[in-house]
Design brief:
Layout: H1 2-28, H2 32-35, E1 40-46, E2 51-54, H3 59-75, E3 83-86, E4 98-107, E5 114-124, E6 152-156, E7 159-160, H4 162-170, H5 175-203, H6 205-228, E8 233-241, E9 251-260, E10 263-267, H7 283-298, E11 312-315, H8 333-349, E12 367-374, E13 379-385, H9 415-421, E14 424-432, E15 446-453, E16 457-462, E17 483-488, E18 491-495, E19 498-503, E20 508-512
Parallel strand pairs: 10-11
Antiparallel strand pairs: 1-2, 1-5, 3-4, 3-6, 4-5, 6-7, 8-9, 9-10, 12-13, 12-16, 14-15, 15-20, 16-19, 17-18, 17-20
Helix pairs in contact: 1-5, 1-6, 3-7, 5-6, 7-8
Length: 525
């Protein structure tokens, strides 16, 4: 009993370190994307780079971040006062706008100084260079998407690497925002370091290390127990992205989940080869989506750490859309393909435990990127937003409407904050009525957001489920597909799901997001 109480206490103590890091990051950040939408994540790691605790932030960040810390450990030698940064998707990153900052935590003094662990955070920067504003272009390779940062030291022995800092700021469109956001990330890590050292001072470094190891083992035990409750067998499912932005053909994603006693093998063989467009996902994304689905399935009481993945093996064919090789374009793999990976995993596992798995949610993040020159402020601007939609209905409940689901967990940018920061106006924002799939329980409805431009700009949309529909389960209907519309001189023109185009003052863009799938057959009146 004493051990169980100790683990529960430390689960919350270490989790609170990550949560407080997130509060510091949000309150210190400059850009609306971070301070308003909360597009960031924070976590704590042990000395070997294993995830120990995380805040309730963004699943696609948190599941992939251990590979970022692992890449830093492979490439760098850490000492007190060092801070590493990276965004390279092929070295543990997700896509280039997501910059990860990693800080080692040393305790003790002099000869007794030793590494206790790491704290890290990942935040989506609204621009990191590349061929288009917002660094989320309709791209053909990684080089078009922005500045690539392998694991490097931004701070060494407490001294800023000023040439690296200057080089980074010289290659982005909005350096005034990047300065503020990067400083906020550094501040968040300092908070995490202080709190982790405080735990070591209170309980002793060895006790903290032993408890970290015990938490990993505890999570593995609980995960094995949860997997062991599923019926043995192989469960298959496949779905597709609408297209890659260049070729109109669907992009197939297939999975076979094999449950064998207390272990699971998740095999994505049969998925499409990597594409020309940016829907390619790196291996870190596929692992992250897998970790998210199993964590949802097995319950939130399990401490969210690397122990959860110990009984789960992920096989993703190299050179496929779920494990792309460099220099593949990957901007949309993080935001769109991650959602479809979740869909196919849920579709497969619904066969093993139908009462626990909901119908498909909207299956897209509806990425909207707008950039240009702000005449009033006399400087460039870059706006990025993901839009909520319908959530899939479950065995005993309808789906929620207008919500960010699965691999995203951000807020929306309040209309007031958006109009204050950028040269456009929100002309419409509300629930997209009756777009959830019918069934015994209906899927949630999508949303409608329409923006009017007050000056010329460039727009990029990366979205999906514009052709296909989120699937229903147990006889429920699929949710309605979304659509993107440009309104110019009173005339409406439907846009592709993935597109880049220029707008002029007075134009409007309307994004209509998909509804969630329904669950069960509707009972007769």
């Amino acid at each position: 009993m004493r051990q169980a109480v100790r683990l529960e206490v430390f689960k919350h103590l270490l989790g609170s370190v990550a949560e407080e890091m997130g509060v510091r990051l949000q309150r210190s950040a400059f850009s609306p994307n971070i301070k308003e939408r909360c597009d960031f994540s924070c976590a704590v790691f042990d000395a070997a780079g294993q995830l120990i605790a995380q805040a309730a932030h963004i699943p696609v960040h948190l599941g992939a971040m251990p590979l970022s810390v692992e890449a830093c450990l492979r490439r760098l030698s850490f000492g007190p006062g060092d801070v590493a940064m990276l965004n390279d998707p092929f070295h543990g990153g997700t896509h280039l706008p997501d910059i990860t900052v990693v800080s080692p935590v040393f305790v003790g003094e002099g000869a007794r100084e030793a590494l206790l662990g790491f704290v890290a955070n990942r935040a989506h920067h609204a621009d990191v260079g590349g061929m288009s504003h917002g660094s989320m272009p309709l791209s053909r390779d990684l080089y078009q998407e922005g500045m690539i940062i392998p694991p490097v030291k931004l701070v060494e022995a407490g001294r800023m690497n000023q040439p690296l800092w200057d080089f980074f700021l010289a290659n982005v469109r909005t350096p005034h925002e990047r300065i503020g956001d990067l400083r906020a990330q550094l501040a968040a890590n300092r908070t995490g370091m202080e709190r982790l050292r405080g735990l070591a001072a209170r309980y002793g470094p060895e006790h903290v290390r032993e408890t970290m190891a015990a938490l990993l083992a505890y999570s593995e035990t609980l995960t094995r127990d949860g997997i062991g409750r599923l019926p043995n067998g192989t469960y298959r499912y496949e779905d597709a992205l609408d297209d890659d932005g260049f070729d109109r053909s669907p992009v197939r994603i297939a999975v076979a989940v094999t449950i064998a006693d207390d272990e699971a093998v998740v095999d994505f063989a049969g998925s499409a080869p990597q594409c020309t467009g940016s829907v390619n996902a790196v291996y870190a994304i596929t692992v992250s989506a897998t970790a998210y689905v199993f964590r949802c399935l097995l319950g939130l009481d399990i401490p969210g750490n690397s122990g959860c993945m110990a009984p789960i093996r992920v096989r993703a064919p190299e050179g496929s859309v779920v494990n792309a090789r460099p220099p593949a374009a990957v901007a949309a793999g993080n935001v769109e393909t991650a959602q479809r990976i979740v869909d196919v995993l849920l579709g497969a596992l619904a066969q093993a435990c139908p009462r626990q798995v909901p119908a498909a949610s909207q299956g897209t993040m509806n990425n909207l990127v707008i950039g240009g020159w702000d005449d009033e402020r006399r400087r460039p601007f870059a706006y990025y937003e993901t839009l909520g939609g319908g959530m899939g209905a479950g065995f005993e409940h309808p789906g929620a409407s207008g919500i960010h689901s699965h691999m995203t967990n951000t807020m929306n940018t309040p209309v007031e904050a958006l109009e204050y920061a950028y040269p456009f106006r929100v002309s419409r924002y509300g629930v997209r009525e009756e777009t959830g799939g019918a069934g015994r329980y209906e899927g949630g409805d999508g949303v409608v957001r329409e923006i009017e431009f007050l000056q010329d700009a460039q727009v990029t949309i990366l979205s999906d489920r514009r052709e296909s529909r989120p699937f229903g389960l147990a006889g429920g209907d699929g949710g309605q597909a979304g659509c993107n519309v440009l309104i110019r001189n009173g005339m409406e023109r439907q846009l592709a799901g993935k597109t880049t185009f220029d707008v002029v003052r007075g134009d409007r863009v309307r994004i209509e997001t998909p509804g969630g799938g329904g669950y069960g057959t509707r009972e007769p009146a």
